[in-house]
Design a protein that fits this description.
Helices cover 28% and strands 26% of the residues. With 338 residues, it is of the alpha+beta class. The strands form six sheets. Strands 6-7-12-10-11 form a five-stranded antiparallel β-sheet. It has a four-stranded mixed β-sheet with strand order 1-2-5-3. The protein is globular, with a radius of gyration of 21 Å. The structure holds uridine-diphosphate-2(N-acetylglucosaminyl) butyric acid (EPU).
Length: 338
């Protein structure tokens, strides 16, 4: 077992720990592999009066400047499942896509639509990851967290997590009070393909679709539309899709013709793809020095080489101001700015 002194490194370059690949220095950095290590790292930060940033896979963050506190990189590993029951538990440091593949290979179905989403299991509930008609919340049973305020481990049921579109109770608290340790899910032994998402349905043969076909098709669509962060730095969708009133949506349609939309739980509200707005405003493929917009998807900001966090942020600000002046809609980042 490592002692605290050897576990915590000083002046660590974070370029390898964020999928934008932007440089930033962490004054202190801990690669956390157990609950004990997490507790010791947090104690170290308390003693030195350092702020703490919990980091998962770094796939949904943008470091805009150096970090003067302690970065806790959550790297606790382990997956276990109870055959027959559909229950599976994964530790926070497991890679999300590898977890989805583990489920597929063990006949635990439901998350095929979330294949290839970059990031870790521990980060997935924070923003309730979702794609192709499925959200993490659908099959989640509970989350085990360390409550930093009480220094106690506790569980959050799905209801207590207050999941919403790209959000949860954990995202609302900026203080990082709760650190996700593991998540438990109940998946199905039966094939229940979710083909609500048109692009997915259109790409699959009918009938008799297998989970493996859904998984393969999602991987293929994602690879064709979204850049691989290992090749081109990016964090997927940079902004959330904005939700507007139906009146606003009707006004947009009378001005701009057919505007794509997604239904929401509230019939008075409509979700509009931010990608469509940005594309209409001419952002696809544009560059601002080393920062740019992916040429195949207007919602994906990319680091074309030597971009710093500030370069990406300035481009994002320019993009959101243009959408505000052109459509009267404010865009909110989905990516967490650190
Ligand atoms: N579109 C454009 N121009 C573009 C790209 C898309 O006009 O350059 C239009 C498309 O024609 C389509 C609409 O925008 O009508 C939606 O595009 P897409 O299907 O790519 O989905 P999205 O709304 O941009 C959301 C999630 C993605 C998720 C996909 C698939 C958000 C913010 N993004 O993207 O999640 O993979 O749906 O379910 O909710 C992520 O969160 O990082 C992410 C990639």
């Amino acid at each position: 077992m490592l002692n605290t002194a050897s576990q915590i490194q000083q002046q660590v370059q974070l370029a390898a720990y964020n999928s934008f690949g932007v440089p930033a220095m962490a004054a202190y950095f801990a690669d956390v592999r157990s609950l004990g290590e997490l507790r010791r790292a947090l104690e170290f930060a308390r003693d030195k009066n350092l702020s703490v940033q919990i980091l998962g896979g770094g796939t949904n963050v943008l470091f805009v400047k150096d970090y003067a506190g302690l970065i806790c990189h959550m790297n606790i590993q382990g997956i276990s499942h109870l055959p027959e029951s559909g229950m599976v538990q994964a530790s926070c440091g497991e890679n999300w896509h590898e977890f989805v593949s583990y489920c597929m290979n063990n006949s635990l179905y439901g998350y095929e639509n979330l294949a290839l989403i970059p990031g870790s299991v521990g980060a997935a509930p924070i923003q309730n990851i979702g794609a192709y008609g499925v959200e993490l919340a659908q099959f989640l049973v509970e989350i085990e967290v360390l409550d930093r305020e009480r220094d106690a481990v506790r569980n959050f049921s799905r209801a207590e997590c207050e999941f919403g579109y790209r959000g949860s109770v954990f995202k609302q608290q900026s203080s990082h009070r709760y650190v996700v340790l593991s998540a438990s899910f109940k998946l199905s032994a039966h094939n229940l393909p979710n083909l609500d998402y048109q692009a997915l349905k259109a790409a699959l043969p009918e009938p008799g679709i297998t989970p493996q076909q859904v998984y393969d098709t999602v991987c293929r669509i994602r690879r064709s539309r979204l850049p691989d962060p290992a090749e081109l730095g990016n964090a997927g969708s940079f902004f959330k899709n904005p939700v507007v009133s139906r009146d606003k949506y009707d006004a947009l349609q009378s001005e701009h013709g057919k505007v794509p939309s997604y239904a929401t739980e509230d019939e008075h509200l409509v979700k509009i793809p931010a990608a469509w707005l940005l594309d209409r405003a001419g952002w696809k493929g544009r560059r601002r020095g080393p920062a740019g917009v992916y040429e195949r998807h207007a919602l994906v900001l990319v680091n074309t080489g030597e971009a710093r966090g500030e370069d990406i942020l300035l481009l994002a600000q320019e993009m959101s101001s243009s959408i505000l002046s052109q459509f009267g809609i404010g865009l909110v980042p989905e990516v967490q700015l650190i």
